[in-house]
Amino acid sequence: MRKICIVTGTRAEYGILKRLMYAIQEDETLELQIIATNMHLSPEFGATYKEILADGFSINKKVEMLLSSDSANATCKSVGLGTIGFADAFEDLKPDLIVVLGDRYEILAAVTTALLYRIPVAHISGGEITEGAYDDAIRNAITKMSHLHFTATEEYRKRVIQMGEQPNRVFNVGAMGVDSIRYVEMMSKDELEKSIGFNLNQPSALITFHPVTLDCNTNSAEQFGNLLQALTNTPELNCLFTYPNSDTDGRILIQMIHDFVEKNKHRAISIPSLGQKRYFSALKEVDVVIGNSSSGIVEVPSFKIPTVNIGIRQKGRIQADSTINCAPLAFDIENAIQHSLTAEFKQKASRTINPYHTPDTVNHILQALKNTDLNDIVIKHFHDL
Length: 385
Fold this sequence. Notes:
Helix 4 runs parallel beside helix 5. The longest helix is centred in the N-terminal third of the chain and has 22 residues, at 72-93. This protein has two domains: 2-174 and 358-371, Glycogen Phosphorylase B (Rossmann fold, 3-Layer(aba) Sandwich); 188-350, Rossmann fold. With 385 residues, it is of the alpha/beta class. The protein is globular and about 60 Å long. The chain contains 15 helices and 13 strands.
């Protein structure tokens, strides 16, 4: 049996990978291995490894790497700890192929270790651009250390090939998160509100703001403070916050969320991790998504609601016309929120077509994982255009 090892470090990434994990587990020719790491193992971020177990999976290895500080120094040390932990995990599990998604630093540690162990890597969501975060460079580094590539659009596929990857190993399969929406059993509004302990009366917003790790003009706390000021100036809006990622300065943003919610208990709540089912159910009920998360660009258009995308963190991604881009300034954010709530723009969002949608994404990936000849695949030849 071919041993396929999934590495996952965040609740959002796991939600996207879950259907592929089930498909691997159910295939008689494949053996699923799971390594949980980083935010999954942190109580501060919801100890979301428990969601993996609750979904019926077994976690083969846990790689502890997240330090209690969110400085650049601590993030760098976390990468080092992750590399040590992945070395031990790969030594024991001896996977035939590793599957990773995205562009986070824990995935960089895993793929760097796999390279030195000569283990082939399948990378999902390469070829994308996010100019405002160091994730952009990490994503490209992961691409060059990977051997199979599954991109979300044809433009992204061409970009991976432009980086020298062999065209027959680069597959445009669409975005897994978009494909999974139709398989999730959504909660009713009453069920969701009871689950989170909050009434999503109209108008309401789901807010996820991550650190902006490459913007030299302003820091993440200043930008997020401007968002909170815009929300203060929009008192009619109910606010459901989810936590940022464990990137540099992430904990500063968490404290700012707590302070805002404490002052606005009548209309604001924070949830460290909604999980995929509650997250999608919330998207079905809210009027707008606000922040700088990739989900606002990739999955949210399928729910036919507006996204207010703040700053440069997602700059470069292909966007649906339900997205409103604005500068990370309180006045601009407030104007964008107000525009998103107009009947005219809501109507526009209701007609949007998601550019990341491709049918049967998971099966396309599964077939490639099953049928690709892995002999000598780690020896890569640069493809010249």
